[in-house]
Write a structure and sequence with these properties.
Rossmann fold, 5-stranded parallel β-sheet, alpha/beta, 5 helices, about 20% strand, about 45% helix, globular
């Protein structure tokens, strides 16, 4: 089985570096990093990953939840939300949008791996 390709949508450069390092250590293929919802949608026109790690609060006009909605409608790519926001309403809003996972920052490598594997497995079960 080939390595899953994962896109990071996050506007914090330090976190992007950490996520990229975690993905490499876990054996996944990091296929890009973008900082806004608009950039994520543009990226997907040319290269589609197997999974997306999506920050909820992004630079740009659309947040991570709205970006995820647009991605799911057009591409059906599983998305794991990542947020530093502990607001329950934000979490509920994210989970109600067909999420494959929701993680709060700080993100640890073990929990990232479990969430990625769960999301990929769930997506495979739903679509096959």
């Amino acid at each position: 089985m080939s390595k899953a390709k994962i896109l990071i949508v996050e506007d914090d450069n330090m976190l992007c570096t950490v996520f990229e390092m975690f993905l490499e250590e876990l054996g996944y293929e990091h296929c890009g990093t973008v900082a806004s919802g608009e950039d994520a949608l543009t990226h997907l026109e040319n290269k589609q990953p197997n999974l997306i790690l999506m920050d909820i609060h992004l630079k740009g006009k659309i947040d991570g939840i709205e970006t995820a909605k647009l991605i799911l409608e057009k591409y059906n790519i599983p998305i794991i939300y990542i947020s530093g926001d502990s607001d329950v309403n934000t979490a509920i809003r994210a989970v109600l949008k067909n999420t494959y996972g929701f993680m709060t920052k700080p993100v640890y490598k073990d929990s990232l791996e479990l969430n990625i594997e769960f999301a990929l497995h769930k997506h495979n079960l739903i679509n096959n």
